[in-house]
Amino acid sequence: MTEILRTTDPVRLSWLIALLADAGIDAVVLDTHTSVLEGSIGAIPRRLVVAEEDAAQALRVLKEAGEA
């Protein structure tokens, strides 16, 4: 798995996952549980990861959407 980005914004994560899914790329969000447990201070960002073979295409999709 390759990390694409980190963010504390769950709405942005949802948008990025939908964007990648539309391009046929499966994405996984890591650190969700830890982020929720720490509360609303936003100290622990969630990581968006994709398979290594999809990383280049995923970055291209996000860059074209102005999200990278």
TrEMBL record:
Name of the protein: DUF2007 domain-containing protein
Lineage, highest ranks first: Bacteria, Pseudomonadati, Pseudomonadota, Alphaproteobacteria, Rhodospirillales
InterPro entries (UniProt xref): DUF2007, N-reg_PII-like_a/b
Residue ranges constituting the DUF2007 domain according to the UniProt record: 1-66
Source organism of the structure: Azospirillum doebereinerae
Transmembrane segments: none
